[in-house]
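pasting NAD-dependent epimerase/dehydratase family protein for the record, 284 residues
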Amino acid sequence: MSQPLKIVITSANCFTAGLLIPALKAKGYYTIGLIRNPQTIESDETITNWMNNDKAKRALQDADHIIHLSGEINSKKEAVYIQANKTSTQIVAEAASVGKARRLIFLSYPGADACSKNLYLRYKGEAEKILSAAGKEAVIFRCPIIIDSPDKPSRIDTLFISQNGKAIPVIGDGRQMMQPVYRGDVVKMIVSALEHGDPGIYELSGPERLSLTGFVQLVNQNPAVKIRYTAPWLAKLLANFIKGLSTTFVDILLNHADSEFTPATYKKFGIQPTSLTTLWSRRQ
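structre below
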């Protein structure tokens, strides 16, 4: 009997990995999760402190495929963006370049560009270049804001859901357009990319175009939900003082939330895009 293919997943304790690992195991893959701090996750094997661990490097070298989920979108320190988005990718690429992995699958962001003034986009852009030069088949999905289902909302979902009738804080005037993608579709795309499709960079946005206000109304299932808008200049100022809010993330929400739905991406990997409007209309 042949041995199952080994899949190494970085940041294996993130929301996407939480859906991905069971899907991979159901397909018969052997999963090795790389995380920073000790935590119980569903992978067959778990390695902690992975960025400074020789065992993790050996696992990356021995992997049949690598799924790189590491990244940071909201930090006040450039060093954090470098470590999470660029350094982690260098570790993956260096190990893969001398290892047996056939494919490297990476989640990036629309507009990723090594020359961008936005730190998140800059280091995602650098990461794309690093993986593309690793000498392996790199499949890169540029995902905008990723949304979950109403029965299992993630942090980004609950951020926009009213608590006890309180107003939802929104950065900007709410007219920023967005094409959020369903996390379940992202997971299906990753699993499919292990066996199908060509290497390259793919835009992976959802099929529905919403304003930020429209999105808030959707996840609350309430067109009259209270919203408190914060002027861009004030949001940028407050980001210097509010813990958990960075000027980089404010810039993403104000100027880089939009993306483009590309049906060809879904067709290439045999996935049917999910309507978030339909999905969230089931919220009780």
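The mean pLDDT is 95.
The longest helix spans residues 78-97.
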